[in-house]
């Protein structure tokens, strides 16, 4: 039996969300912009989803703009605000541990003349409001700090950061892709102007997400075309995926707290078990301020890339912080920003649990790890091949 | 058995993986990321033009078609240490390196093999045209030429030790290239008609001298082109541009009209020594870092020696010296004995041993 502990990468569809995707694709194929019966049914399915999503984050349905996912929502938030503030403001701020969707969007805007600042984090992986106070000026258009970090799970003090941003009349965006559905998220409590979310991180389908835009927020669309989404995001909507997202959002609203408690217990069992069973391990990120499903663990003298493969060959799916999918193995920018030395940024694995995770799975991972780690540590001591 | 197949994205290693999987082995496909192919000289990236990433994608597609797991291992650091640095150092010291041989001995069958063993595998397989057989009498593992003489790659594998050969599998070594392509076509592998790779993988534009110069700027210093008597005939822009036996690119117009060849490179004096083709003939050479695959001979033995990939093996007598060195005397003079290349000793199809030409 395979163990899937990579829920922060993506989650399986919940059965009800899957049903909604299939039923909508089959029965409500109309274009939501069409006047006729078919269009009305599609529109109704989208309105349901919009209400369910708004309820999940404490917003108003009219403030939800559907997107293709988290990356588009982040791009929309940052580019949409930047374009609206050109040329009166010239400065953008984000944290150093943001997702690439934010970091690379800032980089692209920097090439077009925007000044950008990345806020450092401390060794526990938290952005200090003082660092934002140091960096922000009246020239700052937008502050973008993620709600929960994807690699280590730490939760950022968004409300405090938002208050500082607003003192300077800058807008506040949070990428909440890794928190929505895992912990209670309320846009008014957070005090933000923009919030990104993604359906496939909370057992909804891929290809659907949303940007919550507080009513009255000054920004421009980045996808231009028809009058979809009240002219904020052009393009025929992905109605089946949006319907699935709505159902997943409703399920998450209903059981976020109980599921969070269950996952925290499982996660702690996994974390304690690994720390006890494998010497030379340490947890990355402040233990008290994390989403309940995530742990990031360093394995001394082990290349995370190899441990990941060895685990996969045992049927256990986890991930590294390092992105090597495009070929180059870069140390985790998150762990680097936390001030860890190079060896520790390349020997960490992320275990992220979710809907279908069980105690048996946790115990299996704890049982398998010591042997695999031993083998790989043997590697770094000396070559197994007596070649010369 | 669990076997790691080093998959380059080419047809040979793809078929190697397919054959092992069909034999019922637990096959794991691994592609090595060896250098950053996304680096471009002007920093602008053009979508869809990255050759090496395409090879990784081909390997992944083949693995999916066969139904085996596939991973990319990042060996950029190790490749630079074991292969690229050596390549640059050799050219800079007037020698002509053989990076593929170093990659086999120092990377595929060491770093990758280590990793494979840690993954619980018993061996590493590649798409090389060579064969490994166990000699039941002596218990030694023998390295043999591939059965297809036009494709044989044993020359690039002669540094493999007994420990390495015991874990090395060459599933296509007993096949012809045509058969391999046929197998790929019949299994509809997406690389069945992909052309063979020819050049050194980390220098896709084939411009070795610019590559060496960029990595070792000191080598571009000018020097003299001299004849065997030391008379200056011209000048050159760095000895890394030359290889023993080279005729083109000397920029000399010989007064007598006889073509001139590079005879030797003297890095300390930055001299390129040239002369007529007849002066390239040698009957003896010595080699270092010699690996004996059969037992190290106590007396001089008769072998056929190959001094280049495409060289027709020449009969001679080899004597093992101390310190991993050997001396070789050919029966007939040979052209262009090139320092840095491998010399490999054969008895018929069996590799007796090999080393690096001094």
Task: Characterise the protein shown here.
The complex is a heterodimer of chains A (388) and B (358). In chain A, helix 1 packs antiparallel against helix 9 (239-277), helix 2 (37-57) packs parallel to helix 9 and helix 10 (304-313) crosses helix 13. Chain A is α/β, with parallel strands linked by helices. Chain A is 43% helix and 14% strand. A seven-stranded mixed β-sheet of chain A has the order 2-8-7-6-5-3-4, with helices on both faces. Chain A is globular and about 65 Å long. Chain B has 358 residues and is an alpha/beta fold. Helix content of chain B is 24%, strand content 29%. In chain B, strands 12-15-14-13-16-17 form a six-stranded antiparallel barrel. In chain B, helix 1 (11-22) packs across helix 6 (177-186) and helix 3 runs antiparallel to helix 4. The interface between A and B is medium-sized, with 21 and 29 residues.
């Amino acid at each position: 039996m395979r163990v899937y502990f990579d829920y922060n990468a993506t989650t399986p569809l919940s059965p009800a969300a899957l049903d909604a995707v299939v039923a909508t694709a089959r029965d409500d194929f109309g274009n939501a912009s069409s006047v006729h019966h078919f269009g009305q049914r599609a529109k109704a399915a989208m309105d349901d989803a919009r209400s369910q999503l708004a309820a999940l984050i404490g917003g108003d349905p009219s403030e939800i703009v559907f997107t293709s996912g988290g990356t588009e929502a982040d791009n929309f938030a940052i580019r949409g605000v930047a374009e609206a503030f050109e040329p009166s403001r010239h400065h953008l701020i984000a944290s150093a541990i943001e997702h690439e969707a934010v970091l690379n969007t800032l980089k692209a805007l920097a090439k077009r003349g925007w000044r950008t600042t990345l806020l450092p984090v401390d060794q526990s992986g938290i952005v200090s409001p003082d660092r934002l106070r140091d960096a922000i000026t009246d020239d700052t258009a937008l502050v973008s700090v993620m709600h929960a970090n994807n690699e280590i799970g730490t939760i950022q003090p968004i409300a405090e950061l938002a208050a500082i941003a607003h003192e300077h009349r800058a807008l506040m965006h949070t990428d909440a892709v890794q928190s929505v559905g895992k912990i209670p998220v309320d846009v008014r409590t957070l005090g933000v102007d923009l919030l990104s979310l993604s359906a496939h991180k909370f057992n909804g389908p891929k290809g659907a997400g949303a940007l919550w835009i507080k009513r009255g927020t000054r920004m421009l669309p980045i996808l231009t075309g028809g009058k979809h989404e009240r002219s904020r995001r052009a393009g025929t909507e992905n109605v089946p995926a949006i319907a699935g997202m709505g159902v997943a959002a409703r399920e998450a609203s209903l059981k976020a707290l109980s599921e969070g408690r269950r996952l925290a217990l499982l996660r702690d069992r996994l974390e304690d078990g690994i720390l006890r069973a494998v010497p030379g391990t340490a947890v990355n990120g402040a233990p008290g301020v994390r989403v309940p499903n995530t742990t990031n663990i360093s394995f001394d003298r082990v290349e995370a890339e190899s441990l990941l493969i060895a685990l996969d060959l045992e049927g256990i799916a986890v991930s590294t912080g390092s992105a090597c999918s495009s070929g180059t193995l870069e140390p985790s920018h998150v762990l680097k920003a936390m001030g860890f030395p190079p060896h520790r940024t390349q020997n960490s694995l992320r275990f992220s649990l979710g809907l279908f995770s069980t105690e048996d799975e946790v115990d299996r991972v704890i049982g398998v790890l010591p042997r695999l780690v031993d083998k790989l540590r043997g590697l770094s001591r000396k070559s197994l091949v007596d070649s010369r | 058995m669990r076997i790691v197949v080093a998959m380059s994205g080419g047809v040979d290693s793809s078929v190697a993986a397919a054959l092992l999987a069909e034999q019922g082995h637990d096959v794991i496909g691994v592609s090595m990321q060896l250098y950053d192919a996304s680096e471009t000289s002007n920093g602008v990236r053009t979508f869809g033009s990255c050759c090496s990433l395409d090879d990784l994608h081909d390997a992944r597609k083949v693995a999916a078609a066969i139904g085996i797991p596939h991973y990319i291992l990042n060996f950029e650091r190790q490749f630079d240490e074991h292969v690229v640095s050596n390549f640059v150092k050799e050219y800079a010291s007037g020698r002509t390196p053989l990076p593929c041989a170093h990659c086999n001995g120092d990377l595929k069958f060491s770093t990758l093999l280590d990793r494979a063993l840690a993954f619980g595998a018993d061996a590493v397989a590649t798409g090389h045209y060579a064969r490994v057989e166990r000699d039941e009498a002596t218990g030694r593992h023998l390295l043999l030429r591939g059965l297809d003489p036009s494709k044989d790659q044993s020359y690039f594998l002669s540094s493999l030790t007994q420990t390495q050969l015991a874990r090395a599998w060459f599933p296509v070594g007993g096949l012809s290239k045509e058969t391999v392509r046929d197998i790929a076509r019949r299994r509809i592998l997406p690389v069945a008609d992909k052309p063979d790779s020819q050049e050194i993988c980390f220098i896709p534009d084939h411009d070795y001298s610019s590559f060496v110069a960029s990595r070792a700027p000191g080598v571009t210093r000018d020097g003299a082109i001299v004849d065997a008597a030391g008379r200056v005939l011209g000048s050159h822009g760095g000895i890394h541009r030359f290889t023993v036996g080279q005729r083109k690119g000397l920029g000399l117009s010989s007064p007598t009209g006889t073509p001139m060849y590079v005879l030797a490179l003297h890095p300390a004096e930055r001299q390129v020594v040239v002369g007529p083709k007849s002066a390239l003939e040698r009957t003896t050479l010595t080699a270092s870092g010699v690996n004996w695959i059969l037992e190290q001979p106590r007396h001089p033995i008769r072998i056929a020696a190959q001094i280049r990939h495409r060289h027709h093996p020449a009969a001679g007598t080899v004597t093992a010296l101390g310190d991993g060195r050997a001396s070789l005397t050919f029966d007939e003079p040979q052209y262009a004995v090139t320092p840095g290349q491998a010399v490999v000793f054969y008895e018929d199809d069996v590799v007796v041993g090999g080393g690096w030409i001094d």
